[in-house]
Amino acid sequence: MDMSFRNLIVAALLLSVSATSLPAQEDGRVFQERAGGNSLLFRGHRAFVYTQLYNGTYYWLSPAYRTGDVVFGGKVYRDVQLNIDAVRHDLLIRKPDGQADLVLDRESVERFSIGEDNYVNLRFVHGDSAPRGYWQLLYDGRRKFLMQVTKHMEQDLKGDKRDWTGYDGVYRNDVYQCFVYEKRYCYMDESGKMVNIRSKADLLRQFDRPLRREIRRHMREFDPTYVLPLDLYGMEILNFLESR
Question: Where does the chain have alpha helices with state H?
Answer without folding.
Answer: 3-35, 122-126, 200-204, 209-222, 230-242
